[in-house]
Amino acid sequence: MDLELAGKVLAEQPFSRLLGARVTAFGNGEATLELDIREELRQQYGFVHGGVLSYAADNTLTLAAATVAGPGLITSGFTIDYLRPATGAVLRAHAQVVRAGRTRVVTRCDVLTIDDAGAQSLCAVAQGNIAVLDGPGAKR
Amino acid sequence: MDLELAGKVLAEQPFSRLLGARVTAFGNGEATLELDIREELRQQYGFVHGGVLSYAADNTLTLAAATVAGPGLITSGFTIDYLRPATGAVLRAHAQVVRAGRTRVVTRCDVLTIDDAGAQSLCAVAQGNIAVLDGPGAKR
Amino acid sequence: MDLELAGKVLAEQPFSRLLGARVTAFGNGEATLELDIREELRQQYGFVHGGVLSYAADNTLTLAAATVAGPGLITSGFTIDYLRPATGAVLRAHAQVVRAGRTRVVTRCDVLTIDDAGAQSLCAVAQGNIAVLDGPGAKR
Amino acid sequence: MDLELAGKVLAEQPFSRLLGARVTAFGNGEATLELDIREELRQQYGFVHGGVLSYAADNTLTLAAATVAGPGLITSGFTIDYLRPATGAVLRAHAQVVRAGRTRVVTRCDVLTIDDAGAQSLCAVAQGNIAVLDGPGAKR
User: Fold this and answer.
1) Is D138 a member of any domain?
2) C-alpha torsion D93→C10→C125→C48, nearest 10
3) Domain membership flag for residue C14
4) Global ipTM
5) Of C2, C20, C112, D130, most Cβ neighbours within 10 A?
6) Cα(C31)–Cα(C95) distance, integer angstroms
7) Which pTM was predicted?
């Protein structure tokens, strides 16, 4: 997989299109996903909803795994800790592989916001488990 | 808080409106959230996107905490494990309080799908930490 | 595996012997591990050390998985939330299978203490991932 | 707190003495804990027991938080993912603060082994939540 193919996979996910996510970096054990922060993605206090941050973490943890293990992956699960209210212009999630085993990849992710002036704020951190499927008929 | 107020809070979240979530039970340490599964919520294989399941877990873990600790809460974080591909007509998340402390509530959540015939399938389980804010100006 | 074999496996773990752990129930997707609380297992405030609770959770999460998936297992990881200071006479961890897949078992665990009068107190909850090894030479 | 005081706190924990843990670095948002790998700390296959790794993660996640938030802390919980069988001469856990809030510190930890030749192997990664107690009588 390369950046172009990763972008195509994301574009095939209706939910990622609904949220407006895009892959902006992909390779060598690392991946970055971004989306523009807009009204629809907020919670009642005007901050980006935690569900958007967890979506970004989930997808980016698995994208990073795909840079080393290919597309036959399924997210087993992850942990996310929220750090600060998320507000700004762009939400960016960056993940990297910690360990790529034969059947499982462990990855970590930082989720941050970027405001109009380019200032970054770390909003959440996550750690995930990605299962490597061993064939086209493999099931989680 | 009661079911009616919980529904109003959810309706004030633009992201929950975008996903079509509704609170269907609220009280005594337990809360249930549901949403109709539709094309926009899927990933590339036709299953409900993990980000939708994690959104449902996040929100329901905190709703359950609100039944005992009121509305001044903020989700600290959570762990989710995906169990099965999620497909069907309705996604339902049900959470309950495990322990309500003075400053922190720990909750657990089951996320399941229900098909047109009413058959249920458990798709994900989550465990979360909810922080109790100690005043109107409190920050995470 | 049955209760007797599970006890033998535990007895083959030098660290479990050091802590004095014993399996007291094993079967049908559930397992219970107990240990007597003694001075050596405490932290500086006199409560059972979190590391003892996490040991108990780790082992019991995997024991529960072994009731359905046999002995060829390895703990992938887990999440633990501490709820209350742990004190009393006996520490008991009880875990049950949430979902047993072909390659992965997800389990949940409650860790509680029991005092001399038999009163129980829930001290920690955990959720874990157990990998099913597919052969004698399989590695995590 | 400084390295000397951190060492004294650890020495006041009977369980840390039982395991033979020592603090080898402490300051500026980072902490390192080490222990010599010996027979008593192993599981049935000869590797260091997961419970020892989770003990090391638990303690080091909180030690790192103490470098910025002082001694009035309590571990709320953590997630650990095991990466490789742990074997060698020394187990080393290194943690650093990700975000120090007023009431909660989030930290990450790497657990590795070092063999007699000095070669390192990353065995587990963890992410934790540490609660900041707001006074001597504060309870979790």
Assistant:
1) no
2) -70
3) yes
4) 0.94
5) D130
6) 5
7) 0.95
Name the minimum distance, in Å, from the CA of D21 to any CA of chain C.
12
Chain B: closest CA distance from residue C8 (Å): 30
In angstroms, rounded to a whole number, what is the distance separating the alpha carbons of residues C118 and A28? Answer: 56
3-state SS of chain B is: CCHHHHHHHHHCCHHHHHHCCEEEEEECCEEEEEEECCHHHECCCCCECHHHHHHHHHHHHHHHHHHHHCCCEEEEEEEEEECCCCCCCEEEEEEEEEEECCCEEEEEEEEEEECCCCCEEEEEEEEEEEEECCCCCCCC
Q: Do B49 and A43 touch (CB under 8 A)?
A: no
CATH number at residue B18: 3.10.129.10
Within-domain flag for B140: no
C86 touches chain D (CB under 8 A): no
Contact: C139, A101; criterion CB under 8 Å: yes
Between chain B and chain D, the number of residue pairs with CB atoms below 8 A apart is 24
Among all residues of chain B, which has the CA nearest to that of D134?
B103
What's the pLDDT tens digit per position in A47-98? 999 999 999 999 999 999 999 998 899 999 999 999 999 999 999 999 999 9
Question: Cβ of A76 under 8 Å from any chain D Cβ?
Answer: no
Examine residue B24 and state whether it is found in any structural domain, yes or no: yes
Report d(CA B91, CA A24) in Å as an integer.
Answer: 31
SS3 A131: strand
- Please give the tally of structural domains in chain D: 1
Q: How far is B16 from chain D (nearest CA, A)?
A: 27
Write down the mean pLDDT value for chain D.
94
- Write out residues 17-46 of C within 8 Å (CB-CB) of D: 17-19, 39-44
The residue range of the domain holding B44 is 3-132
Confidence label for A14 from pLDDT (cuts 50, 70 and 90): very high
Residue B13 distance to chain C (closest CA, Å): 28
